Amino acid sequence: MNPGENTIGRSSPLGATPGGGGVNFSVFSRGATGVELLFFDREDDYHPARVIPIDPSSNRTYHYWHVFVPGVEVGQIYGYRVDGPFDPAKGMRFDPSKVLLDPYGRGVVVPKNYSRDAAHEEGDNAGSAMKSVVVDSRAYDWEGDKPLKRPSSQTIVYEMHVAGFTRHPSSGVAEGRRGTFAGLTEKIPYLQRLGITAVELLPVFQFDSQDCPPGRVNYWGYAPVSFFSPHQAFSSRQDPLGPVDEFRDMVKALHRAGIEVILDVVFNHTAEGDERGPTLSFRGLDNGIYYILEQDRAHYSNYTGCGNTLNANNPIVRRMIVDSLRYWVDEMHVDGFRFDLASILTRDASGHVLANPPVLWDIESDPLLAGTKMIAEAWDAAGLYQVGGFVGDSWKEWNGRFRDDARSFFRGEEGSVARFADRMLGSPEIYGHEEREPEQSVNFVTCHDGFTLNDLVSYNQKHNEANGENNRDGADDNRSWNCGAEGPTDDREVEKLRNRQVKNFLAVTTLSLGVPMILMGDEVRRTQDGNNNAYCQDNEISWFDWNLVAKHADVHRFVTLLNARRLLRDEEHER
After folding, report:
1. What's 277's DSSP letter?
2. Which of 87-115 are b and which e, b meaning 16 or more Cβ less than 10 Å from the residue's Cβ?
3. What confidence tens digit (pLDDT) does each residue in 472-501 have?
4. pLDDT digits (tens, 9 = 90+) for 321-349
5. Among residues 69, 78, 76, 75, which one has the least CA distance to residue 21?
6. What is the mean pLDDT of the segment spanning 235-248?
7. Which of 40, 142, 296, 342 has most Cβ atoms within 10 angstroms of its Cβ?
8. Quick one: what percent of the chain has pLDDT higher than 90?
9. Is the pLDDT of residue 5 over 60?
10. What pLDDT is stored for residue 1 in this prediction?
């Protein structure tokens, strides 16, 4: 590198910002003693094409390391190496042999030989590491598009997986576009005919597909490594900038069809796991800032069941969360968010539950996010359950008690009638004290996590053997009823009863007061063969089989009519 090839740059904004004939890079690290910016020509290069040391005396402001590099263009692949003390007993896990993602990077590339193992084993992992991409966030023609801001009272949510929606060969989508944002875009007419008004997409932030048991794949995506980058594998375009533009194309097309886009966001943990996990980004930048650590500082608090817990109420992490939400609304035009294990956001750095969590009020009070749909999964994996009491004035909540009580009622459990009646009326027993609109309750009987609706009426027990954990994983309390036979059957009477039960569940979900949510494929009785935890099944167990649209045309028609009736009722009420 020649003298004068870079300049000091600035601390704000964080990330990689093009402009002025180059790119400004800024990253936070309080405990680092040295930071290097690495440029790569290709994602699988074993050695960077350029290494730019960031001078701590001139290129560091407070805890922000920054540099402006002239001549760098959009599409540049980059990463960081960060040096500092490796002292787990004090919560420090710096490792300069690892290439780190930029926490604010707008794009990610994944080499074909990406290795999660190499990110926690000793030695240089440059050739097998995910890397960030310089993206010009403003360089896109939205053609006047903006978030739709549809009233919650006129919203019908369809929870779906981007890849699973079109990956099955029966989708009719060209092979190179199956399982992508572009593939979903092709199927928008189906969603319009079905009558839903919003898609709730399982995680689309870049995640680590290798964060799963050996021989499996993380399919659901609850393993984030970047909160600003769309998942590269969901793009039919594999150039570094493809995923960003293809995601925007999808959003724009959905909006033209009158359909909102809600993202399932995971701000409770990352794919870096526990103390045995890989160093991908946050751990190597400032472990004690980004994660809640146990008192011994060597171990991670695990309120998520996923190995670690994001330190959401730390000022740096709070800012990152809000900045991420603002980015997806302002520059990617999404309409709302469903927060996975949202109760994590109420915990402080010691894991204690806060009465007024700063991050939640930051989100609620942000003017750019005003009118954006915010939906909380108001519980966590450590037993904290806040349905009916989640902090904030505008949050909607996944109503897990609606699911449980509807299931109990339709299998004839004693004492379920009164609870079921309350759920149909918007759950005033749960929410009445807040004097809010009934749409505070998001009503669902099934979601990605658990049985599909077909399996709810076809199996008494879970059948998760395909997951390789001896059927130990997944919930045991499913409140299901197989209608007289376990699994598929040729008994016409059993099948007739199952079809009626499926319609019963769909009717109460759609017609009860609150916001209805339908799981992808329930409208055509999609099955997972009794698997109630298909997080690692990227195959026909999880994919939408489009042959079912004709096979169960009666159920599909029933849902379409229900949705039309629901919207007509709500529109008449609004008038």
Report:
1. S
2. eeeebbbbbbebbbbbbbbbbbbbbeebe
3. 999 999 999 999 999 999 999 999 999 999
4. 999 999 999 999 999 999 999 999 999 99
5. 69
6. 94
7. 342
8. 95
9. no
10. 38
CA gap 541, 534 in Å, rounded? 8
Grade residue 137 by pLDDT with cuts at 50, 70 and 90: confident
Rounded Cα distance between 439 and 325, Å, is 22
CA 99 vs CA 15, 35, 109, 445: distances in Å? 16, 11, 13, 43
User: Angle 14-314-291 (CA atoms, 0-180°, nearest 5)?
Assistant: 95
What pLDDT shows up at residue 6?
66
By annotation, the residues acting in catalysis are 340, 377
**Residue 88 main-chain phi, psi, to 5 deg:** -55, -30
Rg for the chain, CA atoms, rounded: 24
- Cα–Cα dist 237/445, whole Å: 36
pTM, two decimal places: 0.97
Q: Which residues contact 134 (CB under 8 A, 6 or more apart)?
A: 16, 18, 23, 72, 73, 74, 75, 76, 78, 106, 107
Terminal Cα-to-Cα distance of the chain (whole angstroms): 67
Distance CA 43, CA 77 (A): 7
User: 447-474 burial, b for 16+ CB within 10 Å, e for fewer?
Assistant: bbbbbbbbbbbbbeebbbebbeeebebb
Within 10 Å of residue 144's Cβ, how many Cβ atoms? 7
Q: How far is 315 from 296, CA to CA, in rounded Å?
A: 22
- Of 161, 276, 284, 264, nearest to 211 by C-alpha is 276
Task: Indicate the residue type of 334.
Answer: V
Kindly give, in sequence order, each residue whose CB lies less than 8 Å from that of residue 431, ignoring residues fewer than 6 positions away.
Answer: 388, 438, 440, 441
